[in-house]
Amino acid sequence: MDATRENEQAVPGTVHGYIKAKDKENLQNRLRRIEGQVRGVQRMVDEEAYCIDVLTQIASVVAALEKVGTILLRDHVEHCVRESIEKGEDADEKIEELTAAVERFLRV
Amino acid sequence: MDATRENEQAVPGTVHGYIKAKDKENLQNRLRRIEGQVRGVQRMVDEEAYCIDVLTQIASVVAALEKVGTILLRDHVEHCVRESIEKGEDADEKIEELTAAVERFLRV
Amino acid sequence: MDATRENEQAVPGTVHGYIKAKDKENLQNRLRRIEGQVRGVQRMVDEEAYCIDVLTQIASVVAALEKVGTILLRDHVEHCVRESIEKGEDADEKIEELTAAVERFLRV
Amino acid sequence: MDATRENEQAVPGTVHGYIKAKDKENLQNRLRRIEGQVRGVQRMVDEEAYCIDVLTQIASVVAALEKVGTILLRDHVEHCVRESIEKGEDADEKIEELTAAVERFLRV
Question: Which of A8, B74, B82, D34 is deepest in the core (most CB within 10 A)?
Fold first, then answer.
């Protein structure tokens, strides 16, 4: 996967991110589990499960999504932000973008 | 839907929640949209979309899930908590359960 | 404290809340500790402490404040919301207010 | 302020952070306002203000603290993380520390 990316001809105008190969599988597993949890919540609502149990399940999906977010954040800093600083290209913009993303998560 | 519930023979040992009929549809629509968003995030990870865009999408799914949580919370207070207080049955337990659910959301 | 409140002549137009006497002391202790922590953060900024240490301290103040919030929430439901439902007065309004307060905390 | 720091003899074993001079004043103003808000909450609890009003005030202090957190985060990335990457010193450690700090904020 990584080798492919090194060689790939970037489609002009397409910005690509960078996710470590081992994180990609980890993330996809987490996201599939999250998708299953969301379908589980749908079933709970359908079967009129006890509200508190549904709420507990939703709080757990939120935590799982935020965990995915922090893994992506780490990859982003380790690769994109780091690279832009090393090359001295767009570093300010990358740092601005990063803190804006964290603010969106915290909804500040 | 509500009429059915009033008449239903509760399965012994099964605790049922209460979700207003009109909220049920609203919640299911929101949850289906959330499921679609999660699949969208999977696709973004697969196609190595730009990390910041994936993070933005995840923050939006989290907000959508918390909105679902607050709709459920409102129904729960309006029905279950209210009823337990009106009947003078298990009110303390219901209130305890409610604040514990809010704490799980805030992760205090 | 409670006895006093039962007998007190409410100032017209003043809405009073209800905080259990034992929670009041607990809350004041927590709030004084929080005030001290905020002053500690000011000192850290002044002395140019390591950013990560300041951030850790701020995260801890946020958690302490949210804990205070959930104690107040519990007292509010146990007393005000419960009373309004028992008396059948303004229950809808109280429930609306409660869920709105939780939403403000979650910033949904 | 900055000039002083460049020249200062670091106390051995003391790690210093870096806060931009103009942010330092901004942060101190925000922290003093936050301290005042916390004292305001103490007063509200003392005078048994309406719980919902106290909760609203607490939610606003939390948001103000998280804003301070994101300003510090930005300065930290702009200076410490950037510098460690440019010098090729401890970059991995700095990035690890940064994502751990964000996780503590999100309580993932």
Answer: D34
